[in-house]
Amino acid sequence: MPRDANRGRLRSHEACLNCRRKKTRCPAEKPACSSCVRLNQPCLYTPTPKGSRSGPSADRLAYLEEKVNLILSGKGSSPHDQVTNRPHEIPEANYSISSNPPSNEFSGNVNEPFLLGFGYDDSKNHTPSRVSHSLELYFQYCHRQPIWCFDREEVKDPSYISEELVCSIITLTARFSQDRDEIQQYGDTARTLVMLRIANGTVELETIESLCLLSYSAFLDGNGHLGRFHLGLALQLCRSAMLDLNSTYGIECPASERKKRLFWSLQSLEQTYGQIGGILSVPAEVLRPFYLSTGSDQPLENIEHQPPPLPNDSIGCDSSRDIGIWNLALHFGWVWSRVRTYVFDCAQSKLKEPWRHDSMYAMVLSDLTELENKLSLCHRYDSVKFYERRPDELRANRDYWASWLKLQFTYHTILTVLNHPFLYIVASQYNHKLTIPNTFWRRSSEVVMLHATWIVRMIDMVSEKKMRLIDPFFGHAAAIAATVHLYFCCAADPRLKYKSKTDFAKCRRFLKSFVSFSPACESLDLILDKMTRIASGSEKVDFDWEPSKIHLSIPLMWDVLQINCSSSLEEAPYAGLLHPSLAPVHFTDDKDTSSSTLEVIVAMSPEITVNTADGGAAAHMPPSIPRVASAPATPNTAFGDKLVAPADSLMANTPWLWTDPSQFVDMETLGYPESESTLGNIDGFSTWWDFGNL
Fold first, then answer.
1. Per the database record, which ranges form the Zn(2)-C6 fungal-type domain (predicted)?
2. Is there a domain that residue 56 lies in?
């Protein structure tokens, strides 16, 4: 029989804080109930103030003075002070730290009596079954993808999870259920509870974990400003607790592994979504000694200033010397953060000739190659044979395969972005004295096509195995690969043109599979829609589209490469964080994505004669820049010429690039496929699969 609403609220008022947290019946004896006496734990009640916020007080000043007295005396507040009553205000803190009982880490007492004393009616807002369901969704979709804060056994009893962490878990996972409308509600509540923890000086590890989950949720929503705020706050709390120092973990404690997982989860988010180029941003180069050095290379004299050790991760490892797959994905994510800095410098016209030994291009390639030495044989593509695994086997071991796919996508995306033709076309336009050598054009064009195609092959395998990926980084990788295939859609060779259109459609279809739960990916998909219309000069692109030239929108290309997508927050990018009076003025300016374009011709002679006497350098003609009127120039996009990219030798040297025509999917039907694989006959792709993989 349903419980009467008034009776439920009365019981919530009478129960002590311990019984409320455990959701058990409270005898309600005072000063201590028999249940707490039996368990030998402090029994605390939430006192009710004389005033009530349900009706305005005759003297507001007197009411506030009463609240201050409650704070100073260490007494609680009224359960009527509901967080939802005043959603834009943080309830006044009214808990004395001295009343917090001693507790062991992550025991049931760590949450008492702080959070449940603010009228947060947990019996009304979430039931145990709701919390358990949210935890199931978390471990199905978010665990180690990429964040790894807690394991299943650490949250097996939901009643011992802090309220702010419960609300953060529901906020993150509601998008995967029918309760999506509750994301905002629980997100606001979680932020309020976290800020109350900070205001009262009672921040715990679960509080920082809550910020980690809230940050990831904001990045999924495309609210990068709010996500970076949560991420920066969590990192600052880690510094305050000295969780960022190796010396902190010298003393054994039950939560040391959980602390390490939290710290490196925050680093993983920072690598992918952190602010680039700001004065307050920590350069990625700071962590180079940690990622690239072995244990014997660590400077012992500065060991106290070293980052914490990586968490224990033995899934899929053959020996204790092997680095876990989640940790390896973190290593390659660090290289990806350096690539993001490289793209930022290119956007600011700070490109140093990439073929120079001291260029960032060369250093990133060196770091990436060095990290390959850390990749154990047990994790390599040819060893794990992902393409031979059964879908049920992959789902049963999702903790491993989600991280393995993250590593593979990251590796190929790094090499795709580093060699993206757009970067060097724009650099040539900004600096007319910059001459791109033939050998660099040839090598970079082949490398970018190779790894952009590898991304599509990984997408095909994921689709065939029906493995659902959630991290928006995968959608971003697909969008980057799509821009490469769009570039090659105007190739002279019909095979390359056909292949590029096919792979472009696959990338778009894969990206659309993220739209249902990630507004950030939805925004990225809209950007690609605009780019396609501008490139083709038509509102509709179909199978018969065979362009000889395309127009690349410069602002939109930078948006894709720099993840500048703000979802529905386009009109107010700082929504949920700053008052409009603090919003920077330049965010209100509209970008003209159609006037700032590059007209690109990918010219390729169908017959190439190579003179081997000069080492084959004559196979490629230098890029020519004919004098052709272009779109109106602006101070930031002073492009007065059209660049004709050099011819390439992909036709003669790379037969593995060509796909079976039966695999082509019309661009108008971009739904997420049940199964569509290019791997029907693995032997037929032996040349492809033996080249370019990690």
1. 15-45
2. yes
